[in-house]
Design goal:
The chain is of the alpha/beta class. The protein contains 15 helices and 18 strands.
């Protein structure tokens, strides 16, 4: 299969990019791949909202920029922060024009919320399902574009580069080029090659490397792992954001239900098991401190008390106010016997967001030619060492827009636009010779459990050198076992996701070992202070 533009991922970044290309080049084909249903993405589970300076009388670009820089703890790229904040408002108005609806107050103005780390009310939201509403609007717009082909249930295995043409490709190879991807079509159970002039990775996050996460089961770090295997540049993987308040349900592992930060923005109070509000002992901003501070505070309270959760107190809310703004959370709590008007909500931190990823420039370009990245899989320079709440959807739209502009510009180059036709007969088919059907799935599922357990216990909110060393030794063994299985077994989504997650786990641990300080989301008890040398960790 050949296409002009290939988009991998159907979250807000991938959909925005596809829509932009479709409008700019209605004569060209845009193919969008997603590994499950088109609406099953991290975007869908984003509750709180999207940050933007929509009230110029009470807010400013300068304040939003400063809040982002403070949260990023010295590692943000200030130029990128200014680009996202200043261009973000136009992108928000654009998605509104595409049909996304955000809550308004009685006067008809947007009802802006406030979350941890923000100095002003600037969060647009659609109740407590903002991401789902934005995804809905984008998918409806996609369906009106005849030159966009959406193919679901396609698992992308690897990027096609000169390596597949018989050349030696290393990290030092200049001008690595992406020619497309190999795909496991789950509808046909066949491995196909898709050649493209331009490819965008919008593959989302990697929360599933941890035992407990707010991310859906698809968030397995596929894009980051593929770029690393293709010898592209990855950076800052040690900065994994743990959302402070995931709903604690005894015995539940995997995806946890998120209690959005907007609940604390509206006045929710964190309390320990004795009922005492504790955040004032950790930060003057109390419950609205940045997420890294709140998550570490909760982690400490849990360890001191020997418990698995703390509480979020919303009993002082009016039922009408809570159900109007957070109907999804209200119904979820009620379904497990928690009446928020009478009961405390048990919460605990869960892996939520990766601030590092595939290194990109200000146009979304990666270190591999003709390959772009946007959304959570990308490391743009916006978040630094810690993401400011509700900046992620904004970042995804801004860089999807910028990547589309640069992609169209590059497509005008005749050499680039002719790549698929020239290379079609030279790119080999996927070689599955000598592989057999897996005899025991336990070899995959048990390795997955081991990986999640060691990442949660050794590479969580608080780390130290001994834990990181133990994690690396065990990951080395898991890697060797999984690669041996991969070489002799017919590929499956389960095996490929395990392989990708082991790679991502390795990158998280390796970056954490290189950072000899505590900064933002990376807290190492062997290096409790900040280093004078502020740098990005590039692998």
């Amino acid at each position: 299969m050949q296409t002009d533009f290939l988009v991998i991922g159907s979250g807000i970044a991938g959909l925005t990019y596809a829509l932009k290309l479709s409008a700019e080049r209605p004569d060209k084909t845009v193919t969008l791949l997603t590994k499950t249903q088109s609406d099953e993405t991290n975007t869908k589970y984003a509750q709180g909202g999207i940050a933007g300076v929509m009230d110029a009388d009470n807010d400013s670009f300068g304040r939003h920029i400063e809040d982002t820089l403070i949260a990023g703890d010295g590692l943000c790229d200030k130029e990128i922060v200014e680009i996202v904040v200043r261009e973000g408002v136009e992108r928000i108005r654009e998605i509104i024009d595409w049909g996304a609806e955000f809550d308004k107050d009685s006067s008809g103005d947007y009802a802006l919320g406030k979350e941890g780390g923000h100095s002003a009310f600037r969060i647009l939201h659609h109740k407590d399902v903002t991401g789902k509403e934005m995804e809905r609007a984008l998918l409806e717009a996609i369906r009106t574009r005849p030159n966009i082909q959406v193919i679901s249930h396609c698992f992308v295995l690897d990027l096609i580069t000169q390596h597949h043409l018989g050349y030696l490709v290393t990290k030092a190879t200049p001008d690595i080029v992406c020619f497309g991807v190999y795909v496991l079509n789950l509808n046909t159970s066949k491995i196909e090659k898709i050649l493209s002039s331009i490819t965008l990775l919008a593959t989302g996050g990697n929360g599933q490397v941890y035992r407990t996460t707010t991310n859906p089961s698809i968030a397995t770090g596929d894009g980051v792992a593929m770029v690393y295997r293709a010898k592209g540049r990855i950076e800052n993987m040690e900065f994994i954001q743990f959302h402070p308040t995931a709903l604690y349900e005894p015995g539940v592992r995997g995806q946890s239900f998120l209690i959005t930060e907007a609940v604390r923005g509206d006045g929710g109070i964190l309390r320990n098991l004795q009922g005492a509000a504790f955040m004032e002992r950790y930060d003057s901003r109390k419950d609205l401190a940045p997420r890294d501070i709140v998550a570490r505070a909760i982690d400490n309270e849990m360890k001191v008390a020997g418990t698995e959760h703390v509480f979020l107190d919303c009993r002082h809310f009016s039922k009408e106010k809570f159900t109007a703004h957070f109907p999804n959370i209200y119904e979820k709590c009620l379904s497990i016997g928690i009446d928020i008007t009478k009961d405390l909500i048990p919460v605990a931190p869960a892996a939520h967001y990766s601030c590092g990823g595939i290194k990109t420039d200000e146009w979304g370009k990666t270190s591999i030619n003709n390959l772009y990245a946007a959304g959570e899989c990308a490391s743009t320079g916006l978040h630094g060492a810690n993401r400011l709440a509700s900046n992620s959807l904004l970042e995804a739209m801004v860089f999807a827009h910028r990547a589309s502009l640069d992609s169209v510009k590059r497509f005008d180059d005749h050499i680039i636009s002719s790549f698929p036709a020239v290379l079609g007969s030279n790119v080999p088919d996927w070689n599955a010779a000598g592989t057999n059907a897996p005899r025991e799935m336990i070899l995959i599922t048990q390795s997955l459990k081991e990986m999640k357990l060691l990442m949660s216990d050794y590479v969580g909110i608080v780390r130290n050198n001994e834990r990181l060393d133990r994690a690396m030794k065990r990951l080395d063994l898991l890697y060797e076992e999984t690669e041996a299985l991969y070489q002799k077994t017919i590929v499956s989504p389960q095996l490929c996701e395990l392989r990708n997650m082991i790679t991502v786990s390795y990158l998280i641990v390796k970056c954490a070992q290189f950072r000899h300080e505590s900064r933002g989301l990376h807290y190492n008890t062997d290096y409790p202070g900040k280093s004078l040398l502020v740098q990005n960790i590039d692998l």
